Amino acid sequence: xxxxxxxxxxxxxxxxxxxxQMAGRSDRRRNRxxxxxxxxxxxxxxHEWLGGLFIPPALFRERMALLRRASANVLPLGEALQxxxxxxxxxxxxxxxxxxxxxxxxxxxxPVLREFGFPATLYLTTHYCQYRLPIVNLAxxxxxxxxxxxxxxxxxxxxxxxxxxxxxxxxxxxxxQAMLRFSEQHGIDTVGRNDLVAKLAEAxxxxxxxxxxxxxxxxxxxxxxxxTAATAGIDIELHTHRHRTPRNHELFLREIRDNxxxxxxxxGRKPTHFCYPSGDYAAEFLPWLRECGVESATTCELALARxxxxxxxxxxxxxxxxxxxxxxxxxxxxxx
Length: 336
Ligand SMILES: [Zn+2]
Prior knowledge:
Layout: H1 2-16, H2 19-24, H3 27-30, E1 34-38, E2 40-41, H4 46-49, E3 54-55, H5 57-69, E4 73-74, H6 77-86, E5 93-100, H7 103-116, E6 120-124, H8 136-147, E7 151-152, E8 164-165, H9 169-185, H10 190-203, H11 209-214, H12 222-229, E9 234-238, H13 249-267, E10 273-275, H14 285-291, E11 296-298, E12 317-318, H15 325-332
Parallel strand pairs: 1-5, 1-12, 2-3, 4-5, 5-6, 6-9, 10-11
Antiparallel strand pairs: 7-8
Helix pairs in contact: 5-7, 8-9, 8-10
Bound molecules: zinc ion.
């Protein structure tokens, strides 16, 4: 706590003394690229539940305004990486990326990006494009949070064998894992898994249909993906088909190829940039990605990309509700 407060005071003092601006004009910063990572922009109250994944649309707009005030050079990812290699990046260069492809990207992010004239890369996971349903593992957690219940279960028909305390994030994970294991064991498909979440919602007194109708936690459908891809400056790229990174060569390649085929079908463009789902990467993935013709891959490691960064292990700043404006600026100007 004290350490954090001291850091904040220190950064504020540096900013007050004009050192942020000075650092922002330095050669050190000029040769680095800040890649921003976002996930969802809330349609309802998602950021109150999971502020590490969802932020209010107003906060996103604030960040974009901050980039403009700082005269940041927001570049398309492909161009930014080319110029990082060439050593020709402009001052305070930034690339904006979004993971997953939630419906809220279409609703909230695209208009703001257009207004500011900023390009962005969207890493799209494609399995859920065909379903007008929330992503099951997120829906389970959201329903439990929404219920305000202290405990859940036993509900053996959902795979929950005992009473579980669900006031904490960890407790909700226990229920989620039990339900996913149950679905796996019984070969339950995506629609069936959503029926299980509906039953869980009923058991804990949460109305599920309004959640489905609100389209929170849902991935864009093919028409929305196509409309997004047709927006100038928006690039749709790889994030695996089922949001997973199997350690098996064949299965891993299948994830990339299914994902690429679905994206190409919806956008008419072949994707070549990749983002590791859940930031999960391993050394063996690198040759597999090259085999698929992937040019770059981003992680969730926190840093600015340098000319010597491995193009298949590019760090990013995961910007979420826990990142203060001061933190954001300190990365933008390259103070940290
Ligand atoms: Zn993801």
